[in-house]
Amino acid sequence: MKLHALAKAITLATVLSATSFGAMAADIPLSATVEADQVTTKVLAVDAANHQVVLEGAEGRQVHVQLSDKAKNLANLQVGDLVKVEVQRSVAAYLDTDVDKGLPGTVERSGELRKAPGSENPGGEAYRQIQVQLKITKIDLKNNQVTLENPQGQSKILDVKKPEIQAKLKDLKVGQSVVVTYTDLLKVTSQHES
């Protein structure tokens, strides 16, 4: 699997998970957002034996980066190489219509994909996904508020401001779950200075 394909697949799966659950609860509002940012910088120093790299930061500052021993191709990274770091964050939320499904909970997944040992240009991708199930404990139609309980038993009151969502509050039930999935993707590529 290509490195970039992993990032696309995970992001698409996160967004589609909210959409697919929408088929079970077509009248319940869903949300999905994706943000992305990237930076390209220059390698100032490499200590492959100690898994350390110094990158050029803002205004020429040196940024020291300590990598894990999983960074296998650091010996191929050279001073002057360009390193591109891309970060993508997504949040998808959906209503699980299975009332009394269970208590709120949290599930965390992570993974990584690195270039093969000996690759000329080091790089890789990693993801971290956290899924939090919040339980609806109270619905206040008069004030357009929904109270959610997190896995630690703490409650938070959400004010529903959008009229199209306010109109659908009557369809919610105490005991239903709101599942929010947070996904962070990190992609690092490098290329030798031309």
Can you describe this structure in just a few lines?
The chain is mainly beta and 194 residues long.
Write up what this structure looks like.
12% of the residues lie in helices and 48% in strands. With 194 residues, the protein is mainly β. It has one domain. A hairpin with a 5-residue loop joins β2 and β3. It starts with a helix and ends with a strand.
Features of the shown structure:
disordered N terminus, mainly beta, nine-stranded antiparallel sheet, 2 helices, 194 residues
Global geometry = elongated
Averaged pLDDT:
77
% residues in beta strands: over 45%
Helical percentage: 10-25%
C-alpha Rg, in Å?
A: 22 Å
Taken in chain order, the helices and strands follow as HEEEEEEEEHE
Protein name: DUF5666 domain-containing protein
Organism: Pseudomonas jessenii
Keywords: Signal
Record the SSE blueprint.
Elements: H1 3-22, E1 31-47, E2 52-56, E3 62-66, E4 82-96, E5 105-114, E6 124-140, E7 145-149, E8 155-159, H2 163-166, E9 177-191
Antiparallel strand pairs: 1-2, 1-4, 2-3, 4-9, 5-6, 6-7, 6-9, 7-8
